[in-house]
Amino acid sequence: MDTMPENKKSMTVHRFLTLLLAYLIFCVAGGVVVSGFLLPGVYGVNAVANNMMPNLSVDNVDFNVNDLPQQSRLYASDGHTVIATFYAQNRIVVPLNEVSDTMQKAVVAREDRRFFEHSGVDTQGVLRAFIQTYVKQGDTQGGSSLTQQYVKNVLMNQAEEDNDPIAEYHAREETIARKMREMLIAVQMEKKYSKAEILQGYLNIAQFGTNTYGVETAAKRYFNKAAKDLDAGEAATIAAVTKNPAKFDPTVDMQASQEQRNIVLDLMEQEGYISAADRDKAKAKPLEQMLHVQNVDAGCQAAGDAAFFCDYVTKQIMNSKEFGKTQEARNKLLKEGGLDIYTTMDVNANTAAMDAARATIPVDDPSGFEVAMAAIKPGTGEVLGFGLNRIYDATENSGGGTRTAMNFAVDQVDGGGYGFPEGSTWKPINMVAWMKNGKSINQPLRTTTSYPKSSFNCKTASGQEYGFGGDNWAVSNSGGGTVNPETPLQGLVRSHNTTQASMAQQIGLCSIADTAAEMGYHNSPRDQMDVYSESSFQPSMTIGSSNSSPLTMANVYATIAAKGVECSPIAIKKVTDKRNKQIQVPSANCHQAIDPKIAETTAYALNQGVVQPGGEASTTQLDGGRKTFAKTGTHEDKYMLTGGFVPQVAAYVAVGNAEGQVSFTGKTINGVSRGSWYGMYIATPAWKKFMNDYLAAAGIPADNNYGTPEPKYLGAVQATQQQPATPQQQGAQPQTPAQPQAQTQPQQSATQPQPAAQPQPAAPAAPAQHE
């Protein structure tokens, strides 16, 4: 039969002699220190008044304030807007000279009024506690000095850091052995460190409420001010909490907290720290009128509309070796490292993107379609913001749907999904690849509705060969059939698919894939990111059948906007740790990926042919006559896309069901019903609203000088100089090529596309349509 544990308060000879011996030891070893309260001499003992405590080690215990777990803060690009905080213990460490004199006095009055007289152990307090607890058998009395309490907190914290539950238990247990160890360490500390250092350490490590550690965090939590600005009533409120953080937290029990505040005010008056008049004035003010409570919710869950961006940043940290060798180490650094993380998020951009997404399709719209948007600053890789018509929710009960932690605007590895097919928004990539091969965008091409897959067989620069079998690829334009002949420019302006296939035949599919990768393209699925992935590297990639994230496609358009400079998307500009040491962050690796003249000619085609009146994407034209570069797209009847840029901003929008293919046909979306939906009907308004709103809010001036074409890429080429498709490939009689425009008027040829020829019949086995 198990016996009940011995009552710790029962008096035994052994316990009596142990306590008495401890008392005598500390009476002799401790001595008496005579000191004024925080005299200038105390501040002058160490540089601690202006700096963090130096490395302290006593009895193999690290007392360095800088090594305490501290909250990390995520800032927007302006450097002061806090997006989110992360912590294992919600703490901000500050030096003693950033804590008000009143706050220091309040803690001493409450916890250890003889702090500046003893040498680590308050012998009077120990004797009083001994008699009250063990002789009179009254309520348990602690008798611990403020130094001992600091030691206890450090021991508990170190045990938690070491993940040592046994050590943590021993640091908390109410035993004589634990008290003895605390006393011994406290005496050693007092011989080595100043009172100012010890007080500073205590103020930074103590728990001042639920999820509230350290006096600076407490000041911000309860009164929305810094610790250096606390008055007597506020300081007394905070100092009172440490006796019972769970109960005396003013947000938990305001009445109890106010009663404890008044007790501390009385103690401060008794010690001569405040006058009786000041005490009465502070006590007369109801605590409820003093509080200005701030939210202490941690992480992206509390970041509001910046939550999806916040989540992307955390994924970047978790996936980057710069922040630690393992994900566990990176997570620990984020939660405990006191990092200041300065991100690329532009508050105006993120707000405009979220507003545009929800205005296009409300969160609770019965259609259930997702809107996912990403914006990048060309030439920098800086991600400006995300827009999703969803509410961020990372809790276990979020259940997906309108509440989700998945950011559909980014790759799967960064917390997104499988991505969206690009449809015709891919076609500028084909045009860049075409010009990289030295060809004119006004060269007439023979087109057909059926291409032998073997005609797309190709070899990469490294010698890797790819083949696509012996059957045919049936492809037609959105309205059916094909236009023959047609130039690459006309194929882009009219968003024709058959012309893209003809271009790929001539320059090789590998050339298009390599160009896409150079421009920043990769697939979204985690295990299929390579552009040469078997699931995506098919002839149909030329009309946007691969799955990518809006962020990736925004980056592709940013490469065109930046005169061919490609950068890896980045979300973090700078990170400093709790010692203010800068941590290396992932680089954007900006480099010249494509010829600037090719980039500008592509931009010219997008603006003059696609956006200008009569162009397929004329609805993208931005306000105020700002020169606009954009392309719309539709994948089958299930995904609507728009990508585009001005020189300062590139953005991309995808609309569809991110969890699975759902048809738009006949759907009512945001109160509008249509039999057929296209990108220009829904993705384009979202893109345009974001661009107009952000450009206006950020005060970004128009730059209408970009997009000057290179004449050599506009010059027409005689039909005899090309490799036309055979009538067998076409499945119909070839038409006579249109006469090319005179080379003396290249810009007229690009600006004024020739009228479309009569479309040919579609192939019998019609493929999935892309626009």
Automatic annotation (TrEMBL):
Record domain Penicillin-binding protein transpeptidase: where: 374-691
Gene3D superfamilies membership: Biosynthetic peptidoglycan transglycosylase-like (1.10.3810.10), DD-peptidase/beta-lactamase superfamily (3.40.710.10)
Comp. bias regions, Low complexity: 718-755
Reactions catalysed: [GlcNAc-(1->4)-Mur2Ac(oyl-L-Ala-gamma-D-Glu-L-Lys-D-Ala-D-Ala)](n)-di-trans,octa-cis-undecaprenyl diphosphate + beta-D-GlcNAc-(1->4)-Mur2Ac(oyl-L-Ala-gamma-D-Glu-L-Lys-D-Ala-D-Ala)-di-trans,octa-cis-undecaprenyl diphosphate = [GlcNAc-(1->4)-Mur2Ac(oyl-L-Ala-gamma-D-Glu-L-Lys-D-Ala-D-Ala)](n+1)-di-trans,octa-cis-undecaprenyl diphosphate + di-trans,octa-cis-undecaprenyl diphosphate + H(+); Preferential cleavage: (Ac)2-L-Lys-D-Ala-|-D-Ala. Also transpeptidation of peptidyl-alanyl moieties that are N-acyl substituents of D-alanine
Keywords: Carboxypeptidase, Glycosyltransferase, Hydrolase, Membrane, Multifunctional enzyme, Protease, Transferase, Transmembrane, Transmembrane helix
Spans annotated as Disordered: 717-771
Glycosyl transferase family domain residues: 81-268
Pfam families from the UniProt entry: Transgly, Transpeptidase
Membrane spanning stretches: 20-43
Protein name (Swiss-Prot/TrEMBL): Penicillin-binding protein
Organism: Bombiscardovia apis
Organism classification: Bacteria, Bacillati, Actinomycetota, Actinomycetes, Bifidobacteriales
Chain's gene name: ponA
